């Protein structure tokens, strides 16, 4: 009986670790600027200066978000001269995830944007 309880605790701990990792992954995608960067990198490698020009974001903003995405294991860079070329680490998996998110959003309609905690009203600079 004690063995059964211990096994259940291990499974619960494994679930908690997996769910925490999933929550951290989704947090990496939780900012509209990061999503814009990810979508742009899906087109191919870019330098920070290219991303700032294409997305209309400040260099510091792009760099900050790239650092977050790098820490999440979603992007990587390689040196090219004095610049760095940024790319998606797992482009097909990222695109599959974004496509699944779009399908889910089409099913839920405006429900997610109306959420009091995470909806568009709760985002900095966003208004309904």
UniProtKB/TrEMBL annotation:
It comes from the Bacteria. Residues 14-109 form the HTH arsR-type domain. Keywords: DNA-binding, Transcription, Transcription regulation. Gene3D superfamilies: Winged helix-like DNA-binding domain superfamily/Winged helix DNA-binding domain. CDD domains: HTH_ARSR. The keyword Ribonucleoprotein does not apply. The keyword Transcription regulation applies. It holds the Pfam family HTH_5. SMART domains: HTH_ARSR (SM00418). This is ArsR/SmtB family transcription factor.
């Amino acid at each position: 009986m004690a063995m059964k309880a211990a096994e259940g605790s291990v499974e619960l701990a494994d679930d908690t670790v997996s769910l925490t990792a999933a929550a951290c992954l989704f947090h990496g995608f939780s900012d509209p600027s990061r999503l814009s960067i990810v979508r742009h990198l899906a087109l191919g490698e870019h330098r920070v200066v290219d991303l700032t020009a294409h997305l209309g974001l400040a260099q510091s903003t792009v760099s900050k978000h790239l650092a977050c995405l790098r820490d999440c294991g979603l992007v990587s860079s390689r040196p090219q001269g004095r610049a760095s070329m940024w790319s998606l680490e797992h482009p097909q998996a990222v695109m599959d995830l974004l496509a699944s998110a779009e399908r889910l959003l089409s099913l839920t309609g405006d429900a997610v944007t109306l959420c009091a905690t995470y909806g568009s009203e709760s985002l900095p600079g966003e208004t309904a």
